[in-house]
## 1
Amino acid sequence: MAEITLQDIIQPENLVYEKSKLLTEKPFHYCPGCGHGTVHRIIAEVLEELGVDDRTIGVSPVGCAVMAYDYFDVDFVEAAHGRAPACATGIKRVWPDKVVFSYQGDGDLAAIGTCETIHTCNRGENITMIFVNNGIYGMTGGQMAPTTLVGMKTATTPYGRMPQWPDGTPNNGFPLQITQLLAQLPGTRYVTRQAVFSAAAVRNCKKAIKKAFQNQIENKNGVNFVEIVSNCNSNWKMSAVDANKWLQDNMLPVYPLGDLKDNFELIKK
Amino acid sequence: MAKFRGAIVVDIERCKGCGVCITACPCKVIELAKEVNGKGYNYAFMANPEACIGCASCGITCPDGVIKVYKKAL
Ligand SMILES: Cc1ncc(C[n+]2csc(CCOP(=O)(O)OP(=O)(O)O)c2C)c(N)n1
Ligand code: SF4
Ligand code: SF4
Ligand code: SF4
Ligand SMILES: [Mg+2]
């Protein structure tokens, strides 16, 4: 048998993976290795596979993903800081047949936008919410977020986040378990926590995001909420590969992966 | 002998040299080049092409979606 060459393999009929056609040709502005890019890719693949790109409207946040609208070949609105779920609510109520999703970081969703997040989930809007939790304000240079881990050094907690002073008086508070909190609300249908640091994590995350969109398409109510525990290698001040390792060792014990709620039922751990 | 051979094509000018694909590859196929692309990044390339099985782990974890994966049955 003749030796097989790379040329034989690299043929259109042998193609098994390429990025979704729903992503525009514009290169992501994200730092090398940033999980935002991976999450964008997954969303685009899911929308393409579901064939709903012509009736999808995304709502981008304020944060590193502010310009998400540049990267998807679907309609988009850019909301004021923290207001993406309120904006998505309005769009979905006016156009119930559209597939509507919000995309937010942890500062956007769990700090300035906590009010909109909680009330959107409590109203049980029929939307998909994507929440990228990197435990920090990435865009503005790495300040503490409500989700920052205890002991984690940020620009505003240079000695590490300290929930209380040694004498017990309040200081920086505790990592906000926003996803757990939202799972308690009767308006959330599907609540899950995922990640994108490995191929296996990406596969699971894609299944979850697909389900979060399918639920919206098949039903009339109930928020479908997907948290993605992600990295911010630039502000964590490590390489992308080290950040993905650090994430597994430090973020996942506090933010464990898996479904928290399915079909309005809390999942007993 | 392996039943499949794979190959990847990296869009060199869009690669950011983050190395995430290297960690993702179960077969140690990928390394970062000593040379840099137009943006100054050491880009990913198939250093060990015979080892590629076309599993696409690299493609689906690359944050920038710059890898195309091919797979051919032998
Ligand atoms: C009303 C308002 N307040 C504050 C800011 C500054 N600001 C921009 S992005 C951001 C936080 C972003 O963090 P996060 O949502 O976690 O997104 P990341 O960049 O980490 O993905 C802040 C505080 C702003 N743009 N507008
Ligand atoms: S600052 Fe952090 S969140 Fe923003 S693009 Fe860079 S790595 Fe990603
Ligand atoms: S993961 Fe993508 S961007 Fe990063 S080094 Fe590999 S090919 Fe380049
Ligand atoms: S397709 Fe699989 S074996 Fe080939 S380079 Fe990518 S991860 Fe490695
Ligand atoms: Mg953040």
## 2
Amino acid sequence: MNEVLILGEILEGSMDPKTLELVGIGRKLAEDLGGGLSVALMGGAVSAAAEQAASVGPDHVYKVEHPLLEGFTPDLWLAALEQICKKVKPKILLMSHVPLGMELGPRLAVRLNTRLTTDCIDLSIDPADGLLLRTKPVSGGNAISVFKCPGEPQMATMRGKVFGAAEPAEKEGEIGDLVPEIDDSMIKVVSLGVVREEIVSLDKADAVVAGGAGLGDEGGFEMLSDLSRALGKTLGNVMLGCSRVAVDKGWISSDHQVGLTGSMISPDVYVAVGISGAIQHLVGMVHSKKIIAINTDKGCNMFKVADYGVVEDYEKLIPALVKRLEELS
Amino acid sequence: MTELNIIVCAKQIPDPEAPLSDVRVDGEKKEVFVDAPNVISPFDENALEAALVLQEEAGARVTVLSLGRKVSDTVLRKSLAAGADELILLQDNAFEKLDSHSVARVLADAIQRIGDCDLVLTGRQAGDWDSGQVGLMLGEILGLPCISLAREIKVEGRQVQVKKNIAGGYEQVRAALPALVTVSNEVGELRYISRTRMMKMLRKASSIPSWSSGDFVSTPDALQGMEIKELSSPPDMGRSCEFIEGATLEEKADQLVAAITSF
Ligand SMILES: Cc1cc2nc3c(=O)[nH]c(=O)nc-3n(C[C@H](O)[C@H](O)[C@H](O)COP(=O)(O)OP(=O)(O)OC[C@H]3O[C@@H](n4cnc5c(N)ncnc54)[C@H](O)[C@@H]3O)c2cc1C
Ligand SMILES: Nc1ncnc2c1ncn2[C@@H]1O[C@H](COP(=O)(O)O)[C@@H](O)[C@H]1O
């Protein structure tokens, strides 16, 4: 009944900060609807995270525990989530726009015969009919659209870091169990194992030195590594970023990609080297505190969002920068 | 070995990589106008490339499906020039600005009408509305195993093996055919198509099959358009850039280092 349900996520045993953001917006929607707010947490064992979720004041926390929910097997998570929705009958269902939500959302919307809007940056209730107004960047970020869709639950995935995290609340939510009925026979896609390449948490960087197609070849990133190291002495945690084209060329792994289909970050300093500034890249870095662009084309778009620019061939400029930084240290 | 039947879903969209100066947001018509030629949505080109690699490795018949109110066959013929065996256009006024769920339903009907299909490939998301839903919805409607964000696809016997992007690496997964896979850019860019080949394909008289709603859609009444309440330009992201101009590289480096490290 008018319930807003959030699919929470657990990160190393505790609640993912993005879930707290969902609780923030979820609470506002629940108030506007005059209904309750609940958080579902799925996994092998979720008690600790459930306590934490309860402390931010949803009305209910549903623990959805099952040995088969340990790790993320999409077919099983989908089946469990479908069952939860059929029991709870939420009016609104929110997930984060992260791989898990991006994968479960569309399939769940088909199973529940409803509609989903992805990557939303704002949500509100249309007072006329109680449906969700879903604000979402489209066309790479060239426009902002507000959608409305029929169906129940009203489903959306939310972009991270748009909303502040919910604060601890006075009233603690009630924790209850929802036991999913799932078994191995539901698995159509079998995991043969995970290969970890490199964990790149770009969102933890104080500064990012990013390279694009303008680097010309793989060696360009070695030069950028030298610059990162040299900057590290003053700027703290400096990481390598890149544009999609650099990934396409095979110069660097996709975990370094900044932008709409990569990471969205706002470090203290972002140095864009040989990146033209396509909208899909800009949306991922334009909120950086200080933006530096190095590009041979004075007319390129990156300069329009930069604080400082140098029109220069990076192969000449970067070594000079490294040399200068080393002189200073 | 019997040949694989692969279906690639490819959407025609205004060039998402057009310079920003060529993009105009019309709040009244609720449309984004781009002053540049239409293209095949980039991730769909990646999906086509993945299909063509399988065609070479395992032997496959590649059929491209494209849906819209009106689909330009000059844009989509590029898929034939690249090596697809067949292109089918799904065109009808009723297909204008359908929502993702409805697009998936129509594509599912088309695939069911085609009949033989071992593997359906879509892009991870279309570059116009950035929705990222149709592929998985389509797989779910067809009751197929669904795999998302493929960076590599291999077929062995009646199994598809995929390297699927996950944070910090990839997961190797396997499913029985028929299956649906959404494709990410890591599979590689669409192969180079020479100008002569492209021109030849454009001039070729062969007509491209075009199906309208009445030909194959099972539940035309269930189709729904997107309801857009508002469309606006995003807040201005521009800053005023201070260009660093030194006489020598050393001077530029000196000034830039000062700019970077001052707070
Ligand atoms: C749906 C969708 C999602 C996308 N998601 C992303 C995303 O998440 N992230 C992303 O980055 N892109 C994304 N893209 C791609 C995006 O549209 C652009 O194609 C891409 O960002 C361009 O990369 P680039 O700037 O490196 O290459 P280019 O646009 O080719 O720019 C290269 C630049 O290097 C400069 N240059 C050349 N030589 C030198 C030199 N010697 N020294 C200095 N500068 C030089 C050139 O002047 C030019 O400005 C997406 C596209 C779509 C359609
Ligand atoms: N009109 C269409 N015609 C053909 N394929 C489509 C269409 N719309 C979406 N798709 C496919 O579904 C993928 C995801 O689209 P979307 O959910 O709209 O972002 C695209 O990359 C295409 O492969």
